[in-house]
Predict the structure.
Amino acid sequence: MNTGQIDRYPSHENVAAYAATIASADWYALERSLNEHGNAVIPGLLTAAQCKALAAGYDREQGYRSRIVMARHGFGRGEYKYFAYPLPTLLNQLRHLLYPHLAPIANRWSRQLNEKESYPPALDAFLAQCHAVGQTGPTPLILQYGPGDYNCLHQDLYGDQVFPLQVAILLSAPEQDFTGGQFVMTETATTGQRAEVIPLKQGDALLFTVNHRPAPGKRGRLRKVAMRHGVSAVNSGRRHTLGIIFHDAC
Ligand SMILES: O=C(O)CCC(=O)C(=O)O
Ligand SMILES: [Fe+2]
C-alpha cells in the first residue's frame, strides 16, 4: 500500500473504523447476496464527515486526471472526475482493503463460468497485470448529479483486464441532500430481463457486478447473466458518489 502520499482530504478521523468495518463484515452473507442478486451492501462504511469531505473535494482542480461531462458522450446527464495517482489515502486504502475480500469471489465466479481468468490475492499484483497490458490510468472516480441528471445503464469496462466486481459509495444523504437519483441494476438472461432498485443511505458501500455473473438457471445449472447499472433522474439537490473500480484503464 502506498503510504507516502499527501492526504488531500483532512477529515478522515475514522480511518481505522472503515478498516475494522471491512474486516468484520459478514463476507459469507455478502457473497450470498452477490451470488443471488449480483449486489450486496456494507452499511455505513464511511462516516457522514468522510462523505462530506470527499463530496466537497469535487470542485478542486488538483488530484484528478480528467473530468467527463456525461451528456457529451451519451452517458446521461451529470459529470464525473477520475482521480489521478497517487489516490487520496482513504480511497487508496479502501481499494486495497476491499479487493482481497472480493478476489476469492471473483475467482469462484470465473471457475463457475469456465473462464480462464484468475485474480491474484492482493490488489497490487492485479494492477501490475493491468499496467503490463497498458491499462495504467486510475479508474476510481467521483460523480456529481444535479436536478434532472441521471446515469444511463452501463458497464465500466476499460480494456481486456476486467475485475468483475466494483464498489460505489453514496456520499450524499437521500431526502436531505437530494431526492430521486436511485441506483438501478438490470439483469439480462435468456429467461428474461429484470431491474432492481437498490436503496442506499449516506456512507453505504454497494458491491456489485461489473459485467456478468453466474446465476442459477433452469434445472439449477449456472448460466451467465449480463448486468448493467445506472442512476435514475435526480429530482432535487445534489448527489455525489464515490466509485471504486479495481481494473485500471487504457
Ligand atoms: O452514481 C452512482 O450511484 C453510480 C456510479 C457508477 O456508475 C459507478 O460507480 O460506476
Ligand atoms: Fe458505473
